[in-house]
Input
Amino acid sequence: MTFLLFNPQLLFAMPGGTEWLLILLVVLLFFGGKKIPDLMRGIGKGVREFNDAKEHMKKDIDVGMKEKDKPKAPEQRETVKETELPK
Output
């Protein structure tokens, strides 16, 4: 019986239908009907900013990896003619 109480799978299970209804009811009671759209809008902006930053970092990493893999051209040295040497 104690094995069932401390099963790690039970600790991380997603809430079921009844739990979601209870969570929504508590949110409605805390914030009220008028504040919920503002709350959801703020959450949406946060998620959008996070995804934009994630994509920006991904592009930066890809560009860096391409630059690292790109073969470097040999340095072009200037050749000095004998007539141009200082005397």
Observations:
- Helices lie at 2-5, 8-11, 17-69.
- The two ends are 98 Å apart (CA to CA).
